[in-house]
Amino acid sequence: MKGLDQKTVMITGANQGIGWATAERFEAEGSTLCLVDRDISDVTRERFGDKHHLLAADLATSAGMQAALELLRDKNCDVLINNAGITRDATITKMTRADWDKVIAVNLTAVFELCQGAAVMMKERGSGVILNASSVVAHNGNFGQTNYAATKAGVIAMTQTLARELGRANVRVNAVAPGFIETPMTEAIPEKVLDKIRQKPPLARMGHAHEIAAAYAFLASDEASYITGTTLNVDGGLVLG
């Protein structure tokens, strides 16, 4: 993708799944990576440690966030990809305050804090790209995911607001909303359930992590230079109903 070589890109939630695939894609494009995750596995260190910057940090803690912000500033990142996210599913009558608070902390508050840090730096520089992970559940909700859906809808609203605030500083802000994606998190789902999930979108399959990574790469590239404040659904047409 045009303009990604020689860029420094921070990716949160980079240890597996979509984050890992995104790291591989941006490395292939010639970018230098700052990879952040609560846990950095030996496999990740072996794959990316020699050429890139790795940080084990829990973004729901003040210490972890401070470390991530210091890395963001120290490496003068051109692109921030807020990919990290968690679930704590339960129906509304069974969801605990702890379930709510943890998901809000990781999926929304941490995104805000990193966006804020990036905004200050990117405005001073006069350029930059911020990409946030939303989800198709932000549009229509999802059974048992009051907390998760609320954060992902909040991410869209935050993305649109920041696009308005930062556009004149030549900073673009967009979101990606994945549908059902094959990741290590889905491996534990029974095959019968997976078959039903695959039939929901018009394309009649689950997506792959590299397809989300491709969306991130496009939106970060110069080829998307006139796109800001948008949410790109990468869902096989799932939101069509």
UniProtKB/TrEMBL annotation:
Which residues belong to the signal peptide in this entry?
A: none
What the entry lists under InterPro entries is as follows:
KR_dom (IPR057326), NAD(P)-bd_dom_sf (IPR036291), Sc_DH/Rdtase_CS (IPR020904), SDR (IPR050259), SDR_fam (IPR002347)
- Ketoreductase domain segment(s): 7-181
Domain of life assignment: Bacteria
Pfam families registered for this protein in UniProt: adh_short_C2 (PF13561)
Q: Does the keyword Lipid biosynthesis apply?
A: no
* Swiss-Prot/TrEMBL keywords: Oxidoreductase
Record-stated family: Belongs to the short-chain dehydrogenases/reductases (SDR) family.
Protein name, per record: SDR family oxidoreductase
Q: What is the phylogenetic placement of the source species in the record?
A: Bacteria, Pseudomonadati, Acidobacteriota, Holophagae, Acanthopleuribacterales
